[in-house]
Specification:
nine-stranded mixed beta sheet; seven-stranded antiparallel beta sheet; globular
Length: 302
């Protein structure tokens, strides 16, 4: 099936405070965000018309912008309202949502004083491509040659566009060698994350996950940790050496787009998706629908 280009679709984009026809949501080629990565974004999923953890995403977007040195022109509450308006305008229920904020074309250089902050939100249909049974087969990851940077070399707590350059490179190289994604180590050589998702390893009733001290402490990551504790799992956050992967039985990724995705191979290390993967995959799937129904009921009661 041919991919529909993202600049040539029907529908609406929320652009600088108003709904704009999709094909008219454009920026100039001499744009600071394009040339110097003065840009932050979020990745979200809507279930039954409600974005899961929307306010947490909107607050993180504002925080990411602050870490890059600029302020969003809208409050998180205003972003939440705009997101709901956009989903309704596009008639979408289950969708991916992408808010993005960037500096405009007033300056063309590393100097940014006087640059205008722009913001847009787009959404499009993105159903789950795999059934739980298919997901439980697990995906394959290559170990990337690129590493996550140290927190004193980049704003690693932000979801900044520039930090994803090495993720894109890692994913492209992995795909070229027949893998589904790539595992990235950090600047010290510890296990960090996949190119766009956090990672967990399972051994019995213990789940081990890297300490997020140089990459995002994901919203989905924190949600799944809560679900795991409710299911009787012990969570161990620590630095994990690559060779320690041989000691674990299960492995899975978490993220807004990935949701809970089991892993069957990382480089030369093999895993068998089993109880932990199945339990948390289903628990997360149930939770996003339950919270969506609760949010709609609360809105209807107001």
């Amino acid at each position: 099936m041919a991919l529909i280009p993202f600049d040539d679709r029907d529908g609406w984009v929320w652009f600088d405070g108003k709904l704009t026809p999709w094909r008219e949501a454009r920026i100039h080629v001499l744009n600071h965000g394009l040339h110097y990565a003065s840009c932050v974004f979020e990745g979200q999923r809507a279930y039954d018309g409600v974005v899961f953890k929307l306010n947490e995403h909107s607050e993180r977007l504002a925080r990411s912008a602050q870490l890059l040195g600029f302020e969003l022109p809208y409050t998180p509450a205003e972003v939440n309202t705009a997101t709901a308006e956009l989903l309704a305008a596009n008639g979408l229920s289950d969708a991916y949502v992408r808010p993005v904020a960037w500096l405009g074309s007033e300056q063309m250089g590393v100097y940014t004083r006087g640059s205008k902050v722009h913001m847009a939100i787009a959404c499009w249909e993105w159903p789950s491509y795999f059934s739980p049974e298919e997901k439980l087969k697990g995906i394959r990851l290559e170990i990337s040659r690129w590493k996550r940077p140290a927190p004193d070399t980049a704003p690693t707590e932000s979801k900044a566009a520039g930090l994803y350059m090495i993720c894109t490179m890692s994913r492209r190289e992995a795909d070229g060698r027949g893998f589904d994604d790539a595992l990235m180590l950090d600047y010290r050589g510890y296990v960090a994350e996949a190119t766009g998702a956090n990672i967990f390893f399972g051994r019995g009733k213990e789940l081990h996950t890297p300490t997020p001290d140089c990459f995002l402490d994901g919203i989905t990551r924190r949600t799944v940790m809560g679900l795991a504790r409710e299911a009787g799992y012990t969570i161990v956050e620590r630095h994990i050496r690559p060779e320690e992967m041989a000691e674990f039985d299960e492995c899975f990724l978490t993220g807004s787009a990935a949701e809970v995705t089991p892993v069957r191979q990382i480089g030369d290390y093999s895993f068998k998706p089993a109880e932990a993967c199945s339990t948390l995959l289903h628990a997360y799937s149930d939770l996003v629908r339950v919270e969506g129904r609760a949010a709609r009921a609360a809105a209807a009661a107001e």
